[in-house]
Amino acid sequence: MAVTNIDNPHGLRAVRTLSGGRPPMTKYTSYTTSVVYEGDVVQHVGSGKVRSLLTTSGTTSGNYIVGVAANYAATNSDIWVYDDPDTIFQVNSDGATDAGESTEKLRRGLNAPLVIATGNTTTKVSKYELDYSGATTDTKNPLKIIGFAKDANNAVGYAHAEYEVMLHRHFYKQLRVK
């Protein structure tokens, strides 16, 4: 029987913090011209409002990433955001694969772009995925790969594997460093 993973783009799901605790959330307001799907990466747009990266021109425009949406939000409504820069997320990779990659050590530490798509209008869940083939040392990429999800059904090294990542280009992390 062939080993496969399910193609299940679901955006980013908060798993835990680096210290092992429950990821904290903060309430924001969504931007007046766009909806945000649960699992979308969001960025500041001013006046305490956030919007999905979907509304920006590319996946590397993450200078103001503030976190990941914990719920769906219509335009100009309340949205809860996992905004702690030490939050670890789980994300489905796109269809690319390297069958020879049998350990998480081969990708750990690389920075990956996002495959950004409009969320599911029925379930209100994001369709963001990790762009496997784009994972490099490029610091403009918004995701830092820290390993594979610890799930018995996760076939490591195959298409659509589940990864654990952190937000590399996080606004609050940049504030701490300076």
Quick summary:
By secondary structure, the protein is mainly beta. It is built from 1 helix and 12 strands; from the N terminus they run E-E-E-E-E-E-E-E-E-E-E-E-H.
Notes on the protein architecture:
By secondary structure, the protein is mainly β. 4% of the residues lie in helices and 30% in strands. The chain is built from one helix and twelve strands, in the order ββββββββββββα. It has one helix at 171-177; strands at 13-17, 26-30, 41-46, 49-52, 65-69, 78-82, 87-92, 111-112, 114-115, 129-130, 143-148, 162-167. A five-stranded antiparallel beta sheet has the order 1-7-12-11-8, with no helix packed on it. β3 and β4 form a beta hairpin. The chain is globular and about 45 Å long. The protein starts with 12 loop residues before the first strand and ends with a helix.
The succession of helices and strands, N to C, reads EEEEEEEEEEEEH
Number of strand segments: 12
The DSSP helix count reads: 1
Instruction: Compute the average pLDDT.
Output: 84
Q: How many domain modules?
A: 1
Structural class: mainly beta
DSSP strand content: 25-35%
Specify Rg, calculated over alpha carbons.
Answer: 15 Å
CA-CA gap between termini:
52 Å
Helix content: under 10%
Major sheet: order of its strands? Answer: 1-7-12-11-8
Report low-confidence residues grouped into runs of 5 or more: 57-61
Q: What characterizes the major β-sheet?
A: 5 strands, antiparallel
- The coarse silhouette is globular
